[in-house]
Amino acid sequence: MADRLNQLPGEVGVLITRGDEELVERRAEDAAPLGSVFKLFVLLATAEAVRSSELAWDETLVLTDPDRSLPSGRLQDEPSGTEVSVLEAAQEMIAISDNTATDLLIRRLGRERVEAAFASVGGEGNAPWLTTKDFFTLGWGDSAQSTRWRDADEAERRRLLEDIDAAPLSVDAADVSSPVWNNGVDWFASPATVAAVHEVLLSTGDDTVRAILSKNPGVGADLDRALLPYLGFKGGSAPGVLAASWAGETAKGERVTVVIQLRDEDPAAVAGVQREVFGLGADALRLAAEEGGHR
Q1: Distance CA 67, CA 100 (A)
Q2: How does pLDDT run across 205-221, given as a tens digit for each residue?
Q3: pTM (2 decimals)?
Q4: Residues near 235 by beta carbon (within 8 Å), at least 6 away in sequence
């Protein structure tokens, strides 16, 4: 495993755990860009709002033109006025990483609730919390807004994001090619924080949350499901960024978590190792589950 990790480009953060035991750790406390793995924290904020009866899974969200983000997903192509439930939006956010569904949830929750959920599992920074439309706009849109963001304090940044949220997105998918994480535009957390949010989500006791997380087990995680009867996953990518996270449970109920985060200023280098990263994840899950079963 160490040799394979050493062959990956850029900076790599890894945390592999079984129960309370760390099996592999590398830069596990260092914050790194997440790409769409940030959506785990939106799911946590959603689950907490449902648990406190401030939100319901069957509440209706309505799509408007300013809500549209870029793919991934499908909701950005639906007509204005399209209705989706909170549950449907959360499912799409995790299963197919739907960006517009994610932004609908953030709008309904409010940034501050997502920021609080992030902080509750040990996360630091990321305030104000970006929507995916904010991310695309600041990363590849109007350079004046990017400069304003870079130089602003938190209060000014919140005002800037209000302006961005009020207008339709003016960035094309073809523009999204160069890294922006190195300019501070992304969501940042350590492998330890990503592992912690998986742990909290699985510990809510909410079958709906567990079902949402397990809809997409992740490319390459085609291991014997007798080893891990339950497996949740969320991955993410952006130019120069790749992240993948799994949390599973063995037949004995022991938790297994795998988090791999990779960043490099060469987008091609990162894109070229996607298959290897997911293969590493599958092998790490297999190893952790098998070792746990043999103790």
Answers
A1: 6
A2: 899 999 999 999 886 65
A3: 0.96
A4: 35, 36, 37, 97, 218, 219, 242, 243, 244, 245, 278
